[in-house]
Amino acid sequence: MIFEYTPKGVCSRKMIIDVEDGKVKSLEVIGGCNGNLKGISSLVRGMEIDEVIERLDGIRCGAKSSSCPAQLAEALKQYKQS
Question: Which residue range forms the structural domain that includes residue 25?
């Protein structure tokens, strides 16, 4: 199932997450730090969504209250509630 999320308080503008059987099948992030987000996308591919949430939740970016990884965790939390 493809799920779209609009991050809050970070540079990225949209996350498109494909989840299959409780795992992240793919992640595309629009905006933000291109290389870092491609790396994160590659790292989370195939991971259980609960593990992604556990690892990325609460990460901050500098003085910001969140980060793109933390926003991915928020997106997956929202996905689980839908």
Answer: 2-81
